[in-house]
Amino acid sequence: MEFSFALGVGFLAGAGVFLMLRGQTFPVILGLTLLSYAVNLFLFASGRLMIDGAAILGTADAYSDPLPQALVLTAIVIGFAMTAFVIILAIRARTDLGNDQVDGRESSLTNGELLDRKYRKDVKEAKR
Amino acid sequence: MMTHLPVLPILIPMVIGALMLIPPFNQVNAVQRTLGALASVLMLMISILLLVEVDTSGTHLYAVGEWQPPFGILMVVDRLSAILLVLTSVLTLSVQLFASSGEDGHGRFFQPLLMFQVMGIQGAFLTGDIFNLFVFFEVLLIASYGLLVHGGGKQKTAANVHYVILNLAGSALFLIALGILYGTFGTLNMADMARVAPTIEGGNLTLAKSGALLLVVVFGLKSAMLPLQFWLPKGYSAAPAPVAALFAIMTKVGIYSLWRVHLGIFGPEAGGLADLALPWIWPLAWLTLVVGIISVLASETLRHLAANLVMVSVGSLLLMVATATETATSAGLYYLVHSTLATALIFLVAGLVVNQRGKAEDRLVSARAMPQAALIGTVFFIAALALIGMPPLSGFIGKALMMQATLDAGEAGWIWPPLLISSLAALVMLSRTGSTLFWRTREGKPGTAEVHPLQWAGIAVLLVALLALVVGAGWMSEFSERAAADLFEGIDTSVLAGGVSK
């Protein structure tokens, strides 16, 4: 159980970090979201993993640690608010700055993105 | 009433901020502004009362809902927290008055956001629990995201995107660190963690070390420690003047957290975890100061200059954190109070300059004369003297204290040169800025923009506070020593076992 849990957290965190290093705001936000999932799962594990542990006193022999659950709950709520805000901000930046680059400049497009753009433009013109 | 005093600096801005979102207070008008001013004055009075209380009768602990520590939410007011609460309230009053001149009308939610931001800052200073430190960081951050784009515009949006994304990543790191620390310590109460720290060994020690060092990254991001400082110049110079002035204390929240966590919990008595962050902070602090000096010399506008001076003050303070003796901490505390007030003042002056110079704004080019150049110039001169560290103002005393402390710690050889050169760089750039802005004027009709009386009021608050810091320098430096002693001594939660407060 520990191994698969760690693998899941690690995969989410890795994917999140990878996406966060992209140049456009949308993948960055997705990356932040994935990273926050990884963090929430990780917080859960900080109270040690166990199966069949009761959360209420006097009902079982084995108890799970309730504090990490409270922490995760707080972290999820805060994460929700932050994600909502950053999405609105990204939309605002798209209209204010005229593009969806994190640093607001077209020149930061990678070669692949530029080629992609040129391809789409060509297709459009060909249609005309 | 007195027993509930420690929680009021959080409750007042929360309640007033929420009030400002519902009618009849939700319009930007005299009613809302008066409410904001009242709240600021009330917070100032309470924080001064708390300071006096704490200084006479020792650290106050407040267990919210009477849940006993280490399980419940614990508020701790020791001398360090109390003086920072007073500083925050002074700054809030100044910023609130300054913004009430009409700057708050550029968006709809300036006043409530200001209240929520202050709630986050005061909460971060008050909490005795490292998870609540995270929560209050988030409160102050989400309010600051809103304040940074107040009024809108390309520059602000671009700066805000970086600021928000960086801080969200920082929050994720903070939570990872908290998870690791809870897993190894079994508690997140700071006093309890300090108690448990020496007993940690084996595999847990390595884990706890990585958690503690992750916290250095998080607090380094908040305090703009190199290499995490790139967001600062752009963000601070794009922000509206009163917001930038309030942000002068945001970097100091990072410094405060470093003190609390890395001297309080992972201090010299923490066994295998003792002083583990200091070898990392030391070189980074030194480099922050050096890069700050270079950036100061390369500034192109008054606001950039002010933002870079924030970096210089952060570098100096981080060096005091890294020196980690009691005298260095007390010297750092004095300098922290001074530099927050002085940089806030220069940001407000920059706001006036931008208003009065028309299209040239605060760029270092010759432009038409400012209509009220004499008055603004005088305030600029005072702020400049304070920032450079010239006698008789508090900058000089702060710098002298820091140099004395590093001499005592035997680190003068490394720390004195950048500290002194930073003063020289500030001197060069501030004289250049001042002479360009106020004297190198072109022919042409001066503009008609007048400084609003409320803007003067906001500036006057800071000037009075700076003056008080000079007149009361003796008391203040002795108080800083007591505060540093408080920090090194730690918090004794055993007194709460009998349920002292409710």
Give a brief description.
The complex is a heterodimer of chains A (128) and B (502). By secondary structure, chain A is mostly helical.
General description of the model:
The complex is a heterodimer of chains A (128) and B (502). With 128 residues, chain A is mostly helical. Chain A has four helices and no strands. Chain A has one domain (2-127): Helix Hairpins (Orthogonal Bundle). Chain A starts with a helix and ends with a helix. With 502 residues, chain B is mainly alpha-helical. Chain B has a domain at 278-442 and 449-489. In chain B, helix 2 (30-57) packs antiparallel against helix 3 (79-99). Chain B starts with 7 loop residues before the first helix and ends in a 13-residue tail after the last helix. The relative contact order of chain B is 0.11. Chain A binds chain B through residues 20, 25, 28, 32, 35-36, 38-40, 42-43, 45-48, 67-68, 71, 74-75, 78, 81-82, 85-86, 89-90, 92-93, 96-97, 102-104, and chain B through 131, 135, 138, 142, 145, 149, 152-154, 157-158, 160-162, 164-165, 168-169, 171-172, 175-176, 178-180, 182-183, 188.
**What does the radius of gyration of chain B come to?**
22 Å
Arithmetic mean pLDDT of chain A:
86
The residue ranges of chain A in which pLDDT falls below 50 over 5 or more consecutive positions are none
Structural class assignment of chain A? mainly alpha
The fraction of residues assigned to DSSP E strands of chain A is under 5%
User: Strand-and-helix sequence of chain A, N→C?
Assistant: HHHH
User: Which protein chains make the most extensive interface, counting residues with beta carbons within 8 Å of the other chain's beta carbons?
Assistant: A-B, 34 and 28 residues
Largest sheet of chain B: 2 strands, antiparallel
What is the level-2 CATH architecture name of chain A?
A: Orthogonal Bundle
The level 1 CATH classification of chain A is: Mainly Alpha
- Tally the helices of chain B: 19
Question: Strand order within the widest sheet of chain B?
Answer: 1-2
Derived structural class of chain B = mainly alpha
What is the general shape of chain B?
globular
